[in-house]
Amino acid sequence: MESLPEPLLIQILASVPAVELILVCRLVCSQWKALVDSAALWLLKCQWEGLAGEDAEEEGGASWQMLYFLNKRKRNLIKNATGEEDLEHWVEVESGGDGWKIEELPGDFGKDFPSDEVHKYFVTSFEWCRKSQVIDLRAEGYWEELMDTIQPKIVVRDWYAARCDAGCLYELNVKLLSETDEVVAEYRSETIALPQDNEGEWNEITHTFTDYGPGVRFVYFEHGGQDTVFWKGWYGARVTHSSVTVEL
């Protein structure tokens, strides 16, 4: 292998799975370490997997390596986002009225969800219902140096709707927390009111955290709602397909 020209060696190493490159190949010798850390290798991996165009420039190796790993890790960090596991993974912060319930789409006086992959939703009652999750970024593979220096975007999305025959209220609150649960950054939506005579369409709300500073270790996600007609049962805000993703 030592006699191979570096461009060919980069081609060979780029075909190795990324984790093995970092944990095994990088430790073989100083030459391999330099190649594994190089922009050329990670740009090539990005190009092979459609993450970069053929005309992309090398520049910093760390940037292409970061782009590769973040795209590989990009996934929804909210667990049980659509109610397929009942209320598993959620903490019921508030269960007013008759509490939370899971229903099948489209539901009574409701509309189909924009994605065929979503089959259920959570529905609130005649008093405020709120539920939350805490995401441990380190446990999900987003290490301290990444969060403190690169500070990748943290993108939050949620979907909410009302029944056509009942108005509702909806709120979203997301906090970026430190190791000691101090609030580093926060997004709190206004209280969104949908009228009683509405179309029942699903609405998306989104927020992107950027330049939030060092120290972020957890994401606290909370949403909730209630109806505005105060009917016993589950006529309040419907929520589903919540997501939190870390992106470059």
Automatic annotation (TrEMBL):
Record domain FBA: where: 67-248
PROSITE patterns: FBA, FBOX
Residue ranges of every copy of the F-box domain listed in the record: 1-45
Highest taxon in the source lineage: Eukaryota
Protein name (Swiss-Prot/TrEMBL): F-box only protein 2
Gene name of the encoded protein: FBXO2
